[in-house]
């Protein structure tokens, strides 16, 4: 029997309310099943025939009835209480149910007028589902009201909390499937309630949907005894409310009671914090909903049980076109919803089926919070000149680039203190990454216990740190997709933890760009620091620059990668990224003292070009170069300039061109990326036939991949990280990977025709310097003075 605990509400559905809720639920179930199976005869106005059935049966039925129940009951409370609400559908493969409900409430037809709320529109809705030229089977960007795909499981709850941050009047319901609940990211995201500010943030109502099974196995949480599951959820800081059963009328009554109980509790917690000043951490409600997998579908097929088992996960009746018995069962199943009572002669939903639906933008499919570009405002970014470092002469002063950026971010945080639409997230690394200036404008969000030794903790803070990269990513994605701005700061090696999450976000943005009704949202901005070349103290485990490779494999219209070589170029790149829309911007910059190369004006011009010649660093003197020294990244830039200085001293007759690349996508052909160079531009910069020695921040083969079509590719020689790492000195890291200045000079001698013999003694000096370095660090534990004290004197 269904049951509800903590009965703080006196909800009792009237017979009329029960009838209309059940009508809506049955209609949604019918529409969900119809999408999986039918491409004609949507209202069953004639007996079902094999020709009415899709040739390929795709989709997921098992979760759909439970999702339909949640949608129905969210409609009821939104309408009754006048709520602004958003729902994150964790079991995103339950796309049929969310599409069905958005069609029922009218938002689907408003978004796609050819799928109107009538018989012809219903046929179109059915036919397009998982059909060539149609829509995906998941809750995707094409689905009105969605901010979460759910194709890859684990991220729903962190997305929901990100949506609720700084949205004090928003209720975010989050349906979590029992399969998704087994993932690591979901398990960590239960702790998000320790960061939710009941004063300035909205509320998240998790709904843990336990239907017992995944594709072929039982679900762990569904098999826990109820008291054990209760203890787990209470340990996470939630107050559970249980609803279970398989009798529709009883479950409707129990679910209505549970929803009202949960919302009464939320209202009380928010009132206590906002009006009464209660500061204790809130224990928010969670609804545990247990219903059978594939509820109301075929109980048995071919002599084996289906409803309530893993067999209901996808398509319960798979042989409908070939097997007359399956066809008979499908027709009986669809007719069990009594569609003739739910849709009129024209195929329009009847009044009972629509009675619970809210109006206007309160409909879940119409909420602007699921189309955040409608709400986003430009960030108030101050003039960069206030934060720029003075550069009278390149390569003589040093600053920590990310510390300079921190000053800019502090001002942005300060200037958004009233509007609260900018956040910085990261896994315990804001101060480590030299961004601690932001704490002067906002502390770190924290609702748990405070101790006297703690610093910068703030119940109302907008800096968020949790040692779960997945949760940081999920928070920021939910925050951005609902119309706000942010920055994710992370150690370069460990951002790989969210490789798969950024895949999904890039796919979401790419698809959204093709939908005219989706307004552009603020870009997802990564600041990757504590990078490979300055993890000499932490060693091999902290040395991996491959996130850039991963991102540059993705949709070119969405991804951007920047390697600013100094503080002022970092400011310029960050300014561009924070202003941008619908991108994933990856910025790799060091936090250790770094030479200042360009003034602010020079930095702006250089970043606008994306790649350019540094005339002051080379020795072309207006003629054609003998060799091009190219660089991308702060440490490679320093090594290239040091190599150029050595060449100036030892081979003064050699014409050297120095090229710095800030925007990595500039290396791609224009046909493959909007920022790419034409062949004419590329050849002008790198030449068609001269040796190019390229010192690159990451794995060297990426440069070859980006430039392999270019005329001069055969002359391109790239030095970069080649998995030679350890705990050592900073300069030894570049020596171990053959990226050091001496190796670069040797490369020039080896590749410029005629130098091998003429400059043999210079090459020998370079080899000797590398050996001297090797011996020195093993005695002194520090780099050679000529390296440690080096400055540019070109």
What overall form do the CA principal axes indicate?
elongated
Class computed from helices, strands and strand pairing: alpha/beta
Tally the helices.
26
The portion of residues forming beta strands comes to: 5-15%
State the helical fraction: 25-40%
Question: Which ranges are low-confidence, i.e. pLDDT below 50, for 5 or more consecutive residues?
Answer: 1-8
Calculate Rg over CA atoms: 30 Å
The main sheet comes to:
6 strands, parallel
* Chain-averaged pLDDT: 95
User: Strand sequence of the main sheet, in spatial order?
Assistant: 12-9-13-14-16-15
Span from first to last CA?
84 Å
Total beta-strand segments: 22
Enzyme class: lyase
EC number: 4.1.2.-
Domain Xylulose 5-phosphate/Fructose 6-phosphate phosphoketolase C-terminal: 591-792
Organism: Streptomyces coacervatus
What does this structure look like?
With 794 residues, the chain is an alpha/beta fold. 37% of the residues lie in helices and 13% in strands. It contains 26 helices and 22 strands. It has a six-stranded parallel beta sheet, with helices on both faces. The protein has a five-stranded parallel beta sheet with strand order 1-2-3-5-4, sandwiched between helices. Helix 13 packs parallel to helix 17 (567-579). The radius of gyration is 30 Å and the shape is elongated. Pfam families: XFP, XFP_C, XFP_N. Its EC number is 4.1.2.-. This is Probable phosphoketolase. Residues 13-374 form the Xylulose 5-phosphate/Fructose 6-phosphate phosphoketolase N-terminal domain. InterPro entries: Phosphoketolase, THDP-binding, Transketo_C/PFOR_II, Xul5P/Fru6P_PKetolase, Xul5P/Fru6P_PKetolase_C, Xul5P/Fru6P_PKetolase_CS, Xul5P/Fru6P_PKetolase_N, Xul5P/Fru6P_PKetolase_ThDP_BS.
């Amino acid at each position: 029997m269904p049951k509800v605990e903590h009965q703080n509400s006196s909800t009792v559905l009237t017979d009329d309310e029960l009838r209309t809720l059940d009508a809506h639920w049955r209609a949604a179930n019918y529409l969900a099943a119809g999408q999986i199976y039918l491409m004609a005869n949507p209202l069953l106005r004639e007996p079902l025939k094999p020709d009415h059935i899709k040739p390929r049966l795709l989709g997921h039925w098992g979760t759909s009835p439970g999702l339909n129940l949640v949608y129905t009951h969210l409609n009821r409370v939104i309408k009754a209480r006048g709520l602004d609400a958003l729902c994150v559908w964790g079991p995103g493969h339950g796309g049929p149910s969310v599409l069905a409900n958005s069609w029922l409430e009218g938002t689907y037809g408003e978004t796609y007028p050819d799928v109107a709320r009538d018989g012809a529109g219903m046929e179109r809705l059915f036919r397009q589902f998982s059909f060539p030229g149609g829509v995906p089977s998941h809750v995707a960007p094409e689905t009105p009201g969605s901010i979460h795909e759910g194709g890859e499981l684990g991220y729903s709850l962190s997305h929901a909390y990100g949506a609720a941050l700084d949205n004090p009047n928003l209720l975010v319901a989050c349906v979590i499937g029992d399969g998704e609940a087994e993932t690591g990211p979901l398990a960590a995201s239960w702790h998000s309630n320790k960061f939710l500010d009941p004063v300035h943030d909205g509320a998240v109502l998790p709904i843990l949907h336990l239907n017992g099974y995944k594709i072929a196995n039982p679900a762990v949480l569904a098999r826990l005894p109820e008291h054990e599951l209760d203890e787990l959820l209470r340990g996470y800081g939630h107050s559970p409310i249980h609803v279970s059963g398989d009798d529709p009328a009883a479950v409707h009554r129990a679910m209505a009671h549970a929803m009202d109980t949960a919302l009464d509790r939320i209202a009380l917690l928010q009132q206590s914090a906002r009006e009464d000043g209660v500061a204790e951490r809130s224990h928010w409600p969670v609804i545990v909903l247990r219903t059978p997998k594939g509820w109301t579908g075929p109980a048995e097929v071919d002599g084996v049980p289906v409803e309530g088992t893993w067999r209901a996960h996808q398509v319960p009746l798979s042989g409908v076109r070939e097997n007359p018995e399956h066809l008979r069962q499908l027709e009986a199943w669809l007719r069990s919803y009594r569609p003739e009572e739910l849709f009129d002669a024209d195929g329009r939903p009847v009044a009972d089926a629509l009675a619970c639906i809210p109006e206007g933008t309160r409909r879940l499919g119409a909420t602007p919070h699921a189309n955040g570009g409608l709400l986003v405002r430009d960030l108030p970014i101050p003039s960069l000149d206030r934060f720029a470092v003075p550069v009278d002469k390149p390569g003589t002063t040093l600053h920590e680039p990310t510390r300079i950026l921190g000053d800019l971010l502090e001002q942005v945080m300060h200037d958004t203190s009233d509007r609260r639409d900018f956040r910085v997230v990261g896994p315990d690394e804001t101060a480590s990454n030299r961004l601690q200036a932001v704490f002067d404008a906002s502390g770190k969000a924290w609702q748990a216990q405070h101790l006297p030794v703690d610093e910068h903790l703030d119940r109302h803070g907008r800096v968020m740190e949790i040692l779960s990269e997945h949760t940081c990513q999920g928070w920021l994605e939910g925050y951005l997709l609902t119309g706000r701005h942010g920055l994710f700061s992370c150690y370069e090696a460990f951002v790989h933890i969210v490789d798969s999450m950024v895949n999904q976000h890039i796919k979401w943005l790419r698809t959204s760009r093709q939908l005219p009704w989706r307004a552009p949202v603020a870009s997802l901005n990564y600041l990757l620091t504590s990078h490979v070349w300055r993890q000499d103290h932490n060693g091999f485990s902290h040395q991996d620059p491959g996130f850039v490779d991963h991102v540059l494999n993705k949709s070119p219209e969405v991804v951007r990668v920047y390697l600013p070589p100094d503080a002022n170029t970092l400011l310029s790149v960050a300014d561009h990224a924070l202003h941008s829309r619908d991108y994933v911007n990856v910025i790799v910059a060091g936090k250790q003292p770094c030479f200042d190369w360009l003034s602010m004006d020079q930095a702006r011009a250089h970043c606008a070009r994306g790649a350019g010649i540094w005339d002051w660093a080379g020795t072309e003197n207006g003629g054609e170069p003998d060799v091009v020294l190219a660089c991308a990244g702060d440490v490679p830039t320093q090594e290239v300039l040091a190599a150029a200085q050595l060449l100036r001293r030892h081979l003064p007759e050699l014409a050297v061109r120095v090229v710095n690349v800030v925007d990595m996508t500039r290396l791609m052909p224009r046909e493959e990326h909007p920022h790419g160079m034409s062949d004419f531009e590329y050849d002008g910069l790198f030449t068609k036939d001269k040796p190019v020695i390229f010192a690159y921040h990451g794995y060297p083969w990426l440069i070859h991949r980006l430039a392999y079509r270019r005329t001069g590719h055969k002359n391109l020689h790239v030095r970069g990280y080649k998995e030679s790492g350890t705990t050592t000195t900073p300069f030894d890291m570049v020596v171990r990977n053959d990226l050091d200045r001496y190796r670069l000079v040797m490369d020039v001698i080896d590749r410029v025709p005629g130098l091998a013999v003429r400059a043999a003694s210079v090459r020998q000096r370079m080899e000797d310097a590398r050996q001297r370095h090797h011996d020195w660090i093993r005695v002194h534990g520090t780099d050679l003075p000529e390296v440690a004290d080096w400055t540019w004197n070109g």
